[in-house]
């Protein structure tokens, strides 16, 4: 048996995932609608890590669920999320593909999910070995004696210790559970990895290790979309950062200039960064608006120190110096 | 003073998860206790909050040695300590609206008359709107629910606060907001704080002093 080679890196010019005008609305009782994601757009290339950051409840995880076709029945999506063709697999729109296509050819095979709280994601009544073996059988068709070797190889890819393979999920520490879940996500050699809050609840050392491992898998030529509220983890591994507020992407910037250098240009992104204990440690005043009751204009205006009358009209995401910003009062950059 | 001396505690006989741990918090002082996942720091926090009976060692609160834990602790002792846990979902009765969640300690203590005034005041302090106060836990985010849990911990004006990974599930802005609420309360009431966590940067910024788990406890 042969373990498939990781996908070869492709030039950064052709995106692996191209999201345009993605919107998700939930139909509620009484005909109300909750707009969880509105007009989100970004490209993601192989070998690149995009961190999607924002406060809890801003729509980050809904976006991830939309890309995996895992939204509940009362959700309506608009826009497109094209996963580029690769080898025999053709281009697919993740938002419109039917369940059969998603289940048989996409989830686990073309899009791997590194879950939030891995200990809850693993099946509690089966050992890690048995779960790895099941996924290997399903995704690669390995059978018989070769399977045992494949299990060890799959575990080794995330440095999961082979003497812990016969343990049940509740016998694992948070870090080992995270590695087991990541190993499962990597088995299908999916070119796109989606990590939903992979570091929540882990201690700092483990956050760093998990982030470094995800970075390594990205450097192997995968594209990584990391959804997180942990700015330190995002800083550690991201190439680009997308800041989400009230369902919209308000800033899309290179990680280097966002975290270092010039810093963010959107006042919300600036506030989020300044809230870190190693910076100002001051909160953004107020709380995010309800997604079912968004204002017509800028959703951040009510909390924004720079808001003026013009903020009653919706700002559009406009490309500028090194980053795209949706703000009437974005910090200006002078080209050096 | 809140004094924990030689605490050994665990959940099964003969298998303690904390051994010989000692930590002291002076009135008005904030102490950060730093330790990695699974070291037993949450168990020690529960002992300090009189929620878990230790196998050995003593807890002394304001000069009086604690003898009862959980419902066996005298009311005056129990209400002197406010606790905030890591996971607000597991710490909130899903049937209660946030306003009732915050008011529960007052009602349980026979102080219903104070409910209206105190809940309104605290809701403003922690940043909860009237709309949010009328909702149940499943209708709010983790951050909003943790705001309510912090308000509940402050509602009886405790002299001591125990925060066990209060902000581990929260984003940077909510973290800074809740820490600010705790610090303003402590300035106003002179309360002492034991903050347990694994985020060194956060605890060193937040607390007067931080101690490491290995400095205050024996290896298990």
TrEMBL record, chain A:
Database matches in PROSITE patterns: ABC_TRANSPORTER_2
Subcellular location: Cell membrane
Top-level taxonomic group: Bacteria
GO molecular function, one term: ATP binding
Matches recorded under SUPFAM superfamilies: P-loop containing nucleoside triphosphate hydrolases
Principal location: membrane
Membrane topology: Peripheral membrane protein
Pfam family, one: oligo_HPY
The UniProt record lists the keyword Membrane: yes
Sequence ranges assigned to domain ABC transporter in this UniProt record: 19-271
CDD domains: ABC_NikE_OppD_transporters
Keywords: ATP-binding, Cell inner membrane, Cell membrane, Membrane, Nucleotide-binding, Translocase, Transport
NCBIfam families tied to this protein: oligo_HPY
Family that this chain belongs to: Belongs to the ABC transporter superfamily.
Name of the protein this chain belongs to: ABC transporter ATP-binding protein
UniProtKB/TrEMBL annotation, chain B:
Keywords: ATP-binding, Nucleotide-binding, Transport
Coiled coil: none
UniProt superkingdom: Bacteria
InterPro entries hit by this protein: AAA+_ATPase, ABC_transp_ATP-bind, ABC_transporter-like_ATP-bd, P-loop_NTPase
GO molecular function annotations of the record: ATP binding
Keyword Cell division: no
Domain ABC transporter: 2-219
Region forming the signal peptide: none
PANTHER family in the record: ATPASE COMPONENT OF ABC-TYPE TRANSPORT SYSTEM, TRANSPORT ATP-BINDING PROTEIN
Protein name: ABC transporter ATP-binding protein
């Amino acid at each position: 048996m042969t373990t498939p080679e990781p996908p070869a890196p492709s030039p950064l010019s052709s995106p692996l995932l191209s999201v345009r005008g993605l919107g998700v609305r939930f139909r509620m009782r009484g005909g109300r609608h909750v707009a969880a994601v509105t007009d989100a757009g970004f490209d993601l290339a192989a070998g690149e890590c995009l961190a999607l950051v924002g406060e809890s409840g801003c729509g980050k995880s809904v976006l991830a669920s939309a890309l995996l076709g895992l939204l509940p029945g009362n959700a309506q999506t608009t826009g497109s999320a094209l996963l580029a063709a690769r080898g025999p697999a053709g281009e697919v729109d993740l938002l419109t593909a039917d369940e059969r296509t998603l289940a048989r050819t996409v989830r686990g095979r073309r899009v791997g999910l590194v879950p939030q709280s891995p200990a809850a994601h693993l099946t509690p009544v089966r050992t890690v070995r048995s779960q790895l073996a099941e996924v290997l059988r399903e995704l690669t068709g390995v059978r018989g004696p070769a399977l045992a070797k494949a299990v060890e190889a799959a575990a080794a890819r995330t440095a999961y210790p082979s003497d812990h393979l016969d343990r049940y999920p509740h016998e694992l520490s948070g870090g080992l559970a995270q590695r087991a879940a990541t190993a499962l996500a990597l088995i299908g050699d999916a070119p796109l990895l989606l990590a939903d809050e992979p570091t929540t609840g882990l201690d700092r050392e483990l956050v760093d290790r998990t982030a470094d491992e995800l970075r390594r898998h990205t450097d192997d030529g995968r594209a990584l979309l990391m959804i997180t509220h942990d700015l330190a983890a995002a800083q550690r591994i991201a190439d680009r950062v997308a800041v989400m507020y009230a369902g919209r992407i308000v800033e899309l910037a290179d990680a280097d200039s966002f975290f270092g250098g010039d810093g963010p240009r959107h006042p919300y992104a600036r506030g989020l960064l300044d809230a870190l204990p190693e910076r100002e440690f001051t909160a953004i005043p107020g709380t995010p608006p309800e997604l079912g009751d968004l204002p017509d204009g800028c959703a951040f205006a009510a909390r924004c120190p720079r808001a003026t009358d013009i903020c009653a009209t919706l700002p559009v995401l406009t490309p500028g110096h090194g980053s795209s910003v949706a703000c009437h009062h974005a910090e200006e950059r002078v080209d050096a | 003073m809140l004094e924990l001396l030689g605490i050994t505690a665990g959940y099964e006989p003969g298998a303690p998860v904390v051994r010989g741990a000692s930590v002291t918090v002076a009135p008005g002082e904030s102490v950060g206790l730093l330790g990695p996942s699974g070291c037993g720091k949450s168990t020690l926090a529960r002992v300090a909050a009189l929620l878990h009976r230790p196998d050995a060692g003593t807890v002394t609160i304001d000069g009086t040695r604690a003898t009862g834990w959980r419902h066996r602790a005298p009311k005056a002792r129990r209400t002197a300590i406010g606790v905030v846990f890591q996971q607000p979902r597991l710490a909130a009765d899903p049937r209660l609206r946030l306003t009732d969640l915050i008011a529960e300690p007052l009602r349980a203590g026979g102080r219903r008359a104070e409910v209206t005034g105190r809940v309104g005041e605290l809701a403003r302090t922690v940043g909860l709107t009237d709309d949010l106060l009328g909702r149940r836990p499943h209708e709010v985010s983790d951050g909003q629910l943790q705001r309510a849990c912090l308000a509940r911990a402050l509602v009886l004006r405790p002299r001591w606060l125990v925060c066990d990974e209060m902000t581990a599930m929260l984003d940077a802005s909510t973290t800074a907001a809740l820490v600010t609420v705790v610090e303003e309360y402590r300035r106003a009431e002179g309360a002492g704080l034991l903050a347990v966590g694994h985020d060194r940067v956060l605890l060193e910024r937040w607390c007067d002093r931080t101690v490491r788990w290995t400095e205050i406890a024996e290896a298990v």
